[in-house]
């Protein structure tokens, strides 16, 4: 069972490394505005996340089995009491690596989320700028030109050709 646990953790670590590479690539693609490439990356990332979910379910199942065999112990306590020092260190190292990778991936995803939000804000601002009606001029205009100001009070897309 310990071998299955280490194999599952190794595979989880591999997928986390791949997800980090995808997050780095997504950052570049977002900056360069390559939408088609972003779509492909998201598809691949979705496939990896599905596999990650399967592995996480497997890991949880293995942890539950360990805890059922050793009642009253947490998984950390079980790891600490392993008699095989090599297996104990390897398992602890895997868990530490996995935690570090998760934190790194979260940081990269937060950066990418910020880039996406900035892009959305920029696009919203541009759409707002284009579609809002023009303001009345600040200089003095005679009363007879009030009909003219109504026609200039239209948005960019509201004007007639």
Automatic annotation (TrEMBL):
GO terms for biological process: bacterial-type flagellum assembly. Pfam families: FlgN (PF05130). Residues 138-154 have a biased composition (Polar residues). Residues 134-161 are annotated as: Disordered. Residues 38-118 form a coiled coil. It comes from the Bacteria. This is FlgN protein. It comes from Planococcus citreus.
